[in-house]
Amino acid sequence: MFSNRFQDASPPVLKRSTWMSVDIGRSRGGFTTKLHLLTDGQGHPLGFHLTGGQVHESIVVDRVFMTANDLVGSEGQPLAWPVAMSGDKGYRAEWIDHYVLELGIKPVIPSKANEDRTARAVEFDSDLYRQRNIVERLIGWLKEFRRIFARFEKSAKNFGGMIRPGFIQRYMRKILPNGV
Questions:
Q1: Long-range pairs for 51-57 at CB < 8 Å and ≥24 separation?
Q2: How far apart are CA 159 and CA 137, in angstroms?
Q3: Which is nearest to 49 in space by CA: 166, 164, 160?
Q4: Better-predicted residue by pLDDT, 126 or 26
Protein backbone atom coordinates (compact mmCIF):
# COMPACT_ATOMS: atom_id res chain seq x y z
CA MET A 1 0.00 0.00 0.00
CA PHE A 2 1.32 3.51 -0.89
CA SER A 3 1.59 6.15 1.88
CA ASN A 4 1.80 9.96 1.68
CA ARG A 5 3.48 10.43 5.05
CA PHE A 6 6.95 11.06 3.54
CA GLN A 7 5.70 13.78 1.23
CA ASP A 8 4.91 16.05 4.19
CA ALA A 9 8.48 15.74 5.51
CA SER A 10 10.02 17.52 2.52
CA PRO A 11 11.98 20.69 3.33
CA PRO A 12 10.10 23.93 2.83
CA VAL A 13 10.90 25.99 -0.24
CA LEU A 14 12.32 29.44 0.54
CA LYS A 15 9.93 32.21 -0.29
CA ARG A 16 11.28 35.03 -2.41
CA SER A 17 10.94 37.49 0.51
CA THR A 18 13.18 35.25 2.65
CA TRP A 19 15.72 34.91 -0.14
CA MET A 20 15.80 38.67 -0.73
CA SER A 21 16.70 39.35 2.93
CA VAL A 22 20.04 37.61 2.39
CA ASP A 23 21.63 40.71 0.78
CA ILE A 24 24.09 38.69 -1.26
CA GLY A 25 24.24 40.06 -4.76
CA ARG A 26 25.84 39.03 -8.01
CA SER A 27 28.54 41.04 -9.68
CA ARG A 28 31.41 40.28 -12.05
CA GLY A 29 33.44 38.81 -9.20
CA GLY A 30 30.67 36.46 -8.03
CA PHE A 31 28.56 36.74 -4.91
CA THR A 32 29.20 40.03 -3.08
CA THR A 33 27.82 42.30 -0.40
CA LYS A 34 28.27 46.06 -0.11
CA LEU A 35 28.72 47.67 3.27
CA HIS A 36 27.70 51.34 3.27
CA LEU A 37 29.26 53.10 6.28
CA LEU A 38 28.72 56.38 8.08
CA THR A 39 31.68 57.43 10.25
CA ASP A 40 32.89 60.42 12.16
CA GLY A 41 36.16 62.26 11.44
CA GLN A 42 38.24 59.84 13.54
CA GLY A 43 36.96 56.70 11.79
CA HIS A 44 34.48 55.66 14.47
CA PRO A 45 31.38 54.10 12.93
CA LEU A 46 28.02 55.82 13.34
CA GLY A 47 25.92 53.44 11.27
CA PHE A 48 25.85 51.09 8.32
CA HIS A 49 23.56 49.54 5.76
CA LEU A 50 24.02 46.28 3.84
CA THR A 51 23.02 45.71 0.22
CA GLY A 52 23.73 43.15 -2.44
CA GLY A 53 26.76 43.69 -4.64
CA GLN A 54 24.76 44.72 -7.69
CA VAL A 55 22.89 47.55 -5.91
CA HIS A 56 24.07 51.04 -6.82
CA GLU A 57 25.42 53.22 -4.01
CA SER A 58 23.10 56.15 -4.64
CA ILE A 59 19.98 54.13 -3.85
CA VAL A 60 20.78 53.75 -0.14
CA VAL A 61 22.11 57.23 0.74
CA ASP A 62 19.01 58.12 2.74
CA ARG A 63 19.02 54.82 4.65
CA VAL A 64 22.67 55.28 5.66
CA PHE A 65 21.96 58.76 7.04
CA MET A 66 18.90 57.53 8.90
CA THR A 67 21.10 55.07 10.82
CA ALA A 68 22.61 58.13 12.51
CA ASN A 69 19.13 59.08 13.72
CA ASP A 70 19.18 55.90 15.84
CA LEU A 71 21.97 57.44 17.97
CA VAL A 72 19.89 59.85 20.02
CA GLY A 73 20.63 61.41 23.38
CA SER A 74 18.35 62.06 26.32
CA GLU A 75 16.82 65.16 24.68
CA GLY A 76 15.97 63.33 21.46
CA GLN A 77 18.71 65.00 19.43
CA PRO A 78 21.24 62.91 17.47
CA LEU A 79 24.45 62.32 19.45
CA ALA A 80 26.57 62.53 16.32
CA TRP A 81 25.66 64.07 12.99
CA PRO A 82 27.97 64.40 9.99
CA VAL A 83 29.22 67.81 8.91
CA ALA A 84 30.35 66.66 5.47
CA MET A 85 29.64 63.64 3.28
CA SER A 86 32.61 62.36 1.35
CA GLY A 87 31.90 59.78 -1.32
CA ASP A 88 33.27 58.52 -4.61
CA LYS A 89 31.76 59.23 -8.02
CA GLY A 90 29.18 56.48 -7.47
CA TYR A 91 27.39 58.86 -5.10
CA ARG A 92 27.44 61.72 -7.62
CA ALA A 93 23.92 62.80 -8.52
CA GLU A 94 22.14 66.14 -8.41
CA TRP A 95 19.40 64.85 -6.10
CA ILE A 96 22.01 63.57 -3.63
CA ASP A 97 23.59 67.03 -3.44
CA HIS A 98 20.20 68.61 -2.69
CA TYR A 99 19.21 65.87 -0.21
CA VAL A 100 22.48 66.18 1.72
CA LEU A 101 22.30 69.98 1.75
CA GLU A 102 18.75 69.81 3.17
CA LEU A 103 20.14 67.71 6.03
CA GLY A 104 22.70 70.42 6.74
CA ILE A 105 25.64 68.37 5.44
CA LYS A 106 28.21 69.51 2.90
CA PRO A 107 28.56 67.07 -0.02
CA VAL A 108 32.18 66.35 -0.97
CA ILE A 109 31.78 64.22 -4.08
CA PRO A 110 33.90 64.67 -7.20
CA SER A 111 32.19 65.46 -10.49
CA LYS A 112 32.06 62.92 -13.27
CA ALA A 113 34.19 63.53 -16.36
CA ASN A 114 31.15 64.26 -18.56
CA GLU A 115 29.64 66.75 -16.11
CA ASP A 116 29.73 70.54 -15.94
CA ARG A 117 31.52 71.31 -12.67
CA THR A 118 30.36 74.93 -12.58
CA ALA A 119 26.67 73.95 -12.59
CA ARG A 120 26.88 72.16 -9.23
CA ALA A 121 25.19 73.55 -6.13
CA VAL A 122 28.38 73.14 -4.03
CA GLU A 123 32.01 73.63 -4.96
CA PHE A 124 34.18 70.52 -4.64
CA ASP A 125 36.61 70.62 -1.68
CA SER A 126 39.64 68.51 -2.61
CA ASP A 127 41.32 68.92 0.80
CA LEU A 128 38.27 67.51 2.57
CA TYR A 129 37.97 64.74 -0.02
CA ARG A 130 41.44 63.47 0.90
CA GLN A 131 40.03 62.51 4.29
CA ARG A 132 37.78 59.92 2.61
CA ASN A 133 40.47 57.36 3.35
CA ILE A 134 39.17 57.33 6.95
CA VAL A 135 36.23 55.22 5.79
CA GLU A 136 38.51 52.99 3.71
CA ARG A 137 40.73 52.41 6.74
CA LEU A 138 37.70 51.47 8.84
CA ILE A 139 36.63 48.93 6.21
CA GLY A 140 40.17 47.53 6.13
CA TRP A 141 40.14 47.28 9.91
CA LEU A 142 36.78 45.46 9.84
CA LYS A 143 38.11 42.98 7.28
CA GLU A 144 40.69 41.84 9.82
CA PHE A 145 37.81 39.97 11.48
CA ARG A 146 37.54 36.63 9.74
CA ARG A 147 33.78 36.35 10.07
CA ILE A 148 33.33 39.69 8.33
CA PHE A 149 35.71 39.36 5.39
CA ALA A 150 34.65 35.75 4.65
CA ARG A 151 30.95 36.36 5.40
CA PHE A 152 30.10 33.02 6.97
CA GLU A 153 26.59 34.21 7.82
CA LYS A 154 24.02 33.88 5.09
CA SER A 155 21.36 36.28 6.33
CA ALA A 156 21.85 40.03 6.41
CA LYS A 157 20.60 40.15 10.00
CA ASN A 158 23.29 37.74 11.21
CA PHE A 159 26.01 39.40 9.13
CA GLY A 160 25.06 42.78 10.58
CA GLY A 161 25.20 41.14 13.98
CA MET A 162 28.86 40.31 13.32
CA ILE A 163 29.66 43.86 12.22
CA ARG A 164 28.25 45.41 15.39
CA PRO A 165 30.73 43.67 17.77
CA GLY A 166 33.51 45.04 15.59
CA PHE A 167 32.04 48.50 16.08
CA ILE A 168 31.82 47.91 19.82
CA GLN A 169 35.46 46.88 19.93
CA ARG A 170 36.38 50.04 18.04
CA TYR A 171 34.62 52.18 20.66
CA MET A 172 36.08 50.18 23.54
CA ARG A 173 39.56 51.05 22.25
CA LYS A 174 38.55 54.69 22.42
CA ILE A 175 37.12 54.48 25.94
CA LEU A 176 39.60 52.20 27.69
CA PRO A 177 43.15 53.53 28.15
CA ASN A 178 44.87 50.20 27.37
CA GLY A 179 42.53 49.19 24.57
CA VAL A 180 40.87 45.85 24.06
A1: 51/23, 51/25, 52/23, 52/24, 52/25, 52/26, 53/24, 53/25, 53/26, 53/27, 53/29, 54/25, 54/26, 54/27, 55/25, 56/90, 57/87, 57/88, 57/90, 57/91
A2: 20
A3: 160
A4: 126
Predicted confidence (pLDDT) per residue in 53-109, tens digit: 788 888 888 888 887 776 666 777 767 777 888 888 888 888 988 998 998 889 998
Distances (CA, A) of 86 to 34, 47, 105, 125, 159: 17, 15, 10, 10, 25
Does the pTM exceed 0.85? no
Domains and CATH numbers, the chain: 13-175 (3.30.420)
